[in-house]
Amino acid sequence: GAGKGRQAAQEVAEPEEWEKEKESKVIFQKLRALRGRQQREYFDEVCRAGKANVFHCNAVMSGSTSISQGEELLDRMKALEISPDVVTYTNLLSIAVRERRMDVAERMIEQMVESGLKPGTHAFSSLIDGYGKMGKLPQALEAFDRMLKNDLVPNEYTYTTLIDLCSKNGDVRRAEHYFNEVLEHKHGLQPTEMVFTAMIWAYSRSEQLQRLQHLLEIMDDVPTVKPDTRLYNAALSGLDKIGEFEDVINLQNLMKEKGIPMNMVAYSTLIDAYGKRGRVKEAERLFHEMVSLGHEPDAIAYCTIIDVLGKVANFDGAIKYFKEMKEKGLKLQDAGAAIIDAFCRNGKLSQAESLLAELRASPNEIDHPSIVCYTALIAGYANIGKPKTAITLNKEVAGAGLATDEGYYMVYLQALNSAKEWARAREAFQEAVDENYEPFCSCVTEGRDIIKLDVHGMSPAAAGTAVDWALRARWKKKKTLVIVTGKEKTYTYDFNTLRAQVESVLLDCHVVWSVRDGAMFSRGKLKDEERSSPCSGSNRLCVLIAVAIKGGRLVVTSLEWHKFRRRAKLGTKKEDESKAVAGDLDQFLDDELDR
């Protein structure tokens, strides 16, 4: 009798549990469908009814728009005695990444571990993505290492993020390394079009045309890769940037052969490609073809054709498309900037000012002039010999609260130099460096094999940053770097600082130094072992670096060891090498510096 009673009670309990589960699913789906205030009000009702669970909280967390909202929800869960799970913390971590608050994101990882939870692949992938978007490659790689140490298996998104991050930081070799890991099916991954697209962008950024083309060739031999429009858009953009026009046309034809549909991005890329090569009629034909196929042009497509027409001074055509955009209620800011830039490059400053005023008067804030508009105007006034008018525009930029960028600082610094406003120029330069911009082209002069960098009057920090940029961005393509320091001792720049900077650039090389004394430059004394044969005990490329101070100029020149041997006509015996380092090397480098 007791057994029958328990069975009857169980039969009653099971339908009740099913009903609760069914109700919970309905609540979850409704919470996922709602957004903002409606979602929060409905969630309040669920909590008051005592029906909230962790799944409902996760649905609300994924709809949160700020860290403060997410943290308030965490506190509420504790009050309701609902334990957060991995999904809860990961959702808040994603919000923190979106807001670039990596301290909060890292705290979510810590809280998961403290709660006895194991952060998943998605959490670490988001962490890597967050550091990537902030340009912090070392921290992103460290997060990837932690992920592997936790026995987590990276997914396609993880590798795509790493490839993209490495290429944006100029480390294409590392990007290739991660790409090859996917090709070799490491961690059981299968290469897909998503990973190939990331690597195509990497080769495009680093201007490696042959490798990009090779990637397109081997793609067809990988069965798991299904080339799509997005992949071909990346390839079109890359070939347009670093290839020949014929390469772009061939890829366009290949897309047609394979039945890959052309979307608005592909059309915009092709319109730009034709326009850059002066084939304006064909660019317009493509624009009309795009419209006839049912693609409604967006702001980017309009901006592209406006920019093409502006570059050939077809202002009537550019204004016509601008008016179309206005009638359709599209964002006018970028298109207006393209026309203002065209007006300024053709000396039509009054028309540019009129259009700027029109944008400024727009009731829609998104149409208001961008920093690009002011950059074009400042350059325009500086080019016609009115740098003081250009400088006045800077006050308007400050008053409008616009965020400046590297291009703006470049143009503004040139205007200040033209107006001989040296003190303001130094202040603006320091501002740019403090904002992590690299406006160093404004103080660079380049010759056939020499680059001159003027750092006179800069602070030690700015000068060090400028020299580091010159070494990395320009010096490896030249042979000699001349750092103009001025006649006065305006900052301290010692040998150890320069040595560290040079050797970080020539990381894979064995560096031999020859240093001359100078009033502004403390001598770095070389150890005896450093003056021995530079190639002994090393299979790395040997580079000779000579440094000297001459007339307020710090001269840094380099030469590969094998080239020096050839020029100095040295033998291969060890005594010949020792003699070279002891005497001929110094004489040779003296001659190079004099030259």
Structural notes for this entry:
By secondary structure, this protein is of the alpha/beta class. 64% of the residues lie in helices and 6% in strands. The chain has 28 helices and 6 strands. The protein has a 6-stranded mixed β-sheet with strand order 1-2-3-6-5-4, sandwiched between helices. Helix 11 (193-205) runs antiparallel to helix 12 (209-219). The protein is globular, with a radius of gyration of 31 Å. The model is unreliable at 487-492, 517-540 and 569-583 (pLDDT under 50).
Using brief descriptors, characterize the structure shown.
595 residues, alpha/beta, six-stranded mixed sheet, 6 strands, 64% helix, globular
